[in-house]
Design a protein that fits this description.
single chain, alpha/beta, two-stranded antiparallel ribbon, 7 helices
């Protein structure tokens, strides 16, 4: 893949990023799921705070363009979608709509369901509901490319992506009251036709046949020095994909020198430091420099996978 070929054009680079909140209610969970949509706009942006994270956006600005490909972002365990803000903003400038999903019960602001089977069922449902809300939104829906979407997931977000794309997860024994693995009921979403998995946390798909129904093309990146999800472990699970998906529709690479959190945007100074592991990288790894390359790779993949 030639990343330079898919760099932003001058017109795209000059585009601002619009932002609007979407109303997403999960009737099963009985809770609101915070979702923000990022998209291209010509309106002037300003720095907006999303918790401790800042992004230059134009709140509530009109959308520029038509037939925008839709991409949902799923964050890691106890995390926030805004740790993926640079990649999402890059896609928005390139003519995509990016959904920043904050998984209620497993986020930075509410982590009450971490490690539970309910959380395994909730996360892919959140993704489906976010897609529903985007396509139904009066401002965004009419300018979206109909019926197709991708999911980008980091760490536990990789679980979300595979589950909503047809994976059959098991709640692991240490997550169930009886200490026995149990199937998790997940409804796949046929609109999800492409996946980007970044340092994916996917042990819930170890059972034979767990990934047999995942047919979407995938871009997968793992970190050479990832101690949480080592490449060999991820590769062993992804070997369960259908042969034609694994061999012909998966772009898999190990990023030299990268750790588990290398795929997150660099953190603001007040969060960076040894006491906050997601802000840290193995010695010699330049996260900011790598993200320039990562944004190009993801854009190239999604432009191809969501074409048509």
């Amino acid at each position: 893949m030639t990343v330079d070929r898919y760099a932003l054009s001058a017109a795209e680079a000059a585009m601002s990023v619009g932002c609007r909140a979407l109303e997403v209610a999960d009737g099963v969970q009985g809770a609101r799921v915070p979702v923000h949509a990022l998209y291209p706009t010509g309106a002037p942006p300003r720095a907006e705070a999303f918790g401790p994270y800042s992004l230059e956006v134009a709140m509530g600005a009109p959308v520029v363009g038509a037939h925008l490909p839709l991409v949902a972002f799923s964050h890691g365990d106890g995390g926030t979608p805004w740790s993926l803000r640079h990649l999402a903003a890059h896609l928005a400038r390139a003519g995509f709509a990016a959904l920043m999903i904050e998984h209620t019960g497993n986020s930075r602001s509410d982590n009450s369901l971490a490690g539970t089977p309910a959380n395994l069922a909730n996360r892919p449902r959140h993704a489906r509901l976010a897609l529903d809300a985007a396509f139904a939104d009066p401002a965004l829906g009419p300018v979206l490319a109909p019926g197709r979407a991708a999911v980008v997931g980091h760490s536990f977000g990789g679980y979300t992506a595979l589950a909503v794309a047809g994976g059959h997860p098991l709640a692991l024994p240490d997550q169930t009251p009886d200490g026995v693995a149990h199937p998790v009921s997940v409804e796949p979403d046929p609109r999800v036709v492409a996946l980007v998995l970044l340092a994916p946390a996917i042990p819930w798909f170890m059972a034979p046949g767990a990934l047999a129904d995942v047919r979407a093309p995938l871009l997968v990146r793992t970190g050479e020095r990832d101690q949480l999800m080592p490449p060999a472990f991820v590769e062993r699970i992804l070997a369960g994909l259908p042969a034609d998906t694994r061999d012909a529709r998966m772009d898999y690479r190990v990023v030299p020198g990268a750790g588990h959190f290398a795929f997150l945007a660099p953190f603001p100074p007040e969060l960076a430091g040894p006491a906050f592991p997601p802000s840290q990288d193995p010695p010699g790894f330049d996260r900011a420099a790598y993200h320039v390359h990562l944004c190009g790779e993801v854009l190239a993949f999604l432009r191809g996978a969501l074409a048509g």
